[in-house]
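General statements about sequence and structure are easier to judge against a single worked case. When preparing material for the folding task, we compiled for one chain both its residues and its backbone structure tokens. The amino acid sequence and the backbone structure tokens for this protein are reproduced below:
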Amino acid sequence: MSRAVPSKQLPAFGSRGRLRRSVDRFPHFVAQAGATGTVTEATDALIALRMDEPLSGAEEWDNEVCWTSDDIETADQTVAAVFYEDVEITGRRQ
């Protein structure tokens, strides 16, 4: 039995994450590296991380940084893989 590669698995709802690098959602906002949040949605098509601190310009998106198929750059990537390039899971919501 083979194990799935962790970067391909969806993060669990309620997981806590920290941005490994800044995430630019031009022209709306930039979420700075080191910012933290909670996973509020995780499907093959959308992963959303609600940030702990308000992001100026992200109000329309409920202060969430989202990853979708629009973020995929190569045919072998998934939304989860792109998410994990940007986010380190640090634990579960207490």
